[in-house]
Amino acid sequence: MSQGAPLDAVETSKASAPTIEKETAGEKNIDITSSPSNVDDVLVGPNGEQYPTKEELETLPRVVGKVNWIIYTIAIIELCERFGYYGTTAVFVNFIQFPLPEGSTTGAAGTYGQPGALGFGQQVSTALVLFNSFWSYLMPIAGGYLADTYWGRYHTINVAIVIATVGHIILIVSSIPGVVTNPTGALGCFVVGLIFFGMGVGFFKCNISPMIAEQYEYENPRATVEINKKGQKVINDPVLTISHIYMRYYFFINVGALVGQISMVYAEKYVGFWLAYTLPTVLFLLCPLLMIWLRNKYHRRPPTGSVLSKSMATFFLALKGRVSLNPVQTWRNCKDGEFWGRVKPSRLENKPSWMTFDDAWVDEVRRGFQACKVFAFYPIYWLAYGQMTNNLVSQAATMKLGAVPNDIVHNLNPFALLILIPICDKFIYPAFEKAGLKFTPIKKITAGFAAATLSMIVAAIIQHFIYRQSPCGKYASDCDTPPDIWVWVQAPAYILIALSEIFASITGLEYAFTKAPKNMRSLITGVFWFSQAFSSALAQAFVGLATDPLLEWLYTTIAVISALGGIGFWIAFKSLDAQEEALNALPESDFRGSRNQDADEEAVLAEQRRQDKILEAQGLK
User: Fold this and answer.
1) What's 586's domain CATH number?
2) Could you identify which of 37, 293, 448, 555 might form a hypothetical disulfide with 460, taking C-beta atoms 3.0 to 4.6 angstroms apart as the criterion?
3) What is the pLDDT of residues 72-130, one digit of tens each?
């Protein structure tokens, strides 16, 4: 995270950049021109807060700061949205794959029957579930761009809620008794609903996670030295606190997911799919009510316009003169240590007219590009994760279920997360910190790959024994008599996926926030989620294996790919571990949408010089 003093402003409805004069420098209504510039006072902030020295950074314990209640209200909004999403998608597989039970017009099947509606089979089911995932995670790119450039995060979230509500309503229509009895017509209606549903989900996801962390950062932009209740000197670390916030945020996500999935699975089983689509819609409507009620409580960073175009223009300017017909030479030219340095405005004699930013923003863009490179490996991780919502659900249907619906078993995943998140947050991560072991984001993500690999190994072993013990052999999916294997043997696979999410998914959200330029956070978060969309597209190549008698090969192949992906990720990015502290400590930048948006240039330069002195004193520059 950028720990420089923020230049935040209250968001307006217009796509204009924030002004600089008399902006915040760690607290509201503080004029940055009054910031101390004397070298002796360099580690004292404008409000008297004390910044840590290099020695203090290396020796003092780091603690999590106080989290304001307003942050939890955003987590509740996300809980309602996730209840709406997971409660709805939890029944997709059965809705598409299995036909209406005999005598049913709603899809309900009673205690021991198999709920179903359209009857298009496992391959169509897998393909459409993957399409929904692809579309839902493609849209964050568009939503992030619109938020950063034109609408701002708050307004984009409200637009997302409207679009998603339309999608929810169309899905309800596709499942009502008069429609669901016509499978072809119901499928067409269902697909239209998916398009609106996924667009709303995508616009929402890329903006809600940056918004929750910005509420804390607005009041606590830098690490400070404080005295705790025991009288000990400690460092109140914003980076550690942001990580803590995202852990709790993910906890709320999984409360919504768990309750939504379990309740809707029973709704489909005993009442019908129309109820399983209606109840999530009702709870989802709490989102706009909370957003409107609390609108004046939230810090809302304004859009700054033309952010993406200027970052890309800066990249291509840096690339100019470095491209060769020889790819190896091009690579060497770009690795000379001056790729970004030579395009900093202070080093250009004739700056282009579009260069309305300072040197610090170039550093932020460089860090954002590094984050995007890290996310390039995520499609491999999501490939294993995605099996949880389609093929593992189908696998469960081939085992002994008793009175348990096949699509309730994967709720072991959010249930495990609700247990494992507090354990990691309260015990495992603090233990690493106390021991002086830096469990950096790169190490966490690598561990996430390892856990996902083990999960797929477990799934492959289970599938092997299903084929071995089924009366129908390797065509167990079409068999009326299941093998003598209880469905709960899937538990280790779901628990391992949950552990991988803590290491890879939560850390990815944190990485998107802390490494992106402040006025590109929604877009970079969109890039993070787009990796899941790309993974869904990649998974389409494996649909041919998603049927008997090839399911063993499906899970084995994905396990091997995940293992190789994790090894490749560590080799590619292990060098970033050593840079983590410096990357998080970049000073605040000055970015204006155009040169007509005047700022107090001298005040901005004075503040940047002060921040540079702080970083030098801390050994981070």
Assistant:
1) 1.20.1250.20
2) 555
3) 999 999 999 999 999 999 899 899 999 999 989 999 998 888 899 999 988 899 889 88
Residue 154 lies in a domain: yes
**Longest Cα pair distance anywhere in the chain, in angstroms?**
83
Residues 337 and 406 in one domain: no
Please answer whether residues 130 and 303 qualify as being in contact, where contact means their C-beta atoms are separated by less than 8 angstroms.
no
Same domain, residue pair 110 and 161: yes
Q: Where are the alpha helices (DSSP H) in 323-377?
A: 327-334, 359-375
For residue 50, give the 3-state DSSP assignment.
strand
DSSP-assigned beta bridge partners for residue 591: 357
- Asked if 224 and 281 sit in the same domain, the reply is yes
Q: In whole angstroms, give the CA distance from residue 388 to residue 555.
A: 11
> How many CB atoms are located within 10 Å of the residue 293 CB?
10
Assigned token pair, 583: 């990357």
Helix axes 121-146, 183-219, angle to 10 degrees: 40
Residue 284 and residue 318 in one domain: no
Edge-to-edge strand order for the sheet containing 62-63? Answer: 62-63, 233-236, 224-227
Measured distance CA(441)–CA(287) in Å, rounded: 31
State pLDDT tens for residues 568-601: 999 999 888 777 777 776 666 666 655 444 555 5
**Total of domains in the chain:** 2
- pLDDT, the chain, mean: 85
The residue range of the domain holding 348 is: 311-355
User: Strand runs (DSSP E) across 190-342, as ranges?
Assistant: 224-227, 233-236
**349 and 390 housed in the same domain:** no
* Element containing residue 292 per DSSP (H, E): helix 286-293
Rama region for 538: left / alpha / beta (φ>0; ψ in -120 to 50; rest): alpha
Please name every residue paired with 233 in a beta bridge, in sequence order, or none if there are none. Answer: 227
CA distances (Å), origin 432, targets 423, 437, 583: 13, 5, 21
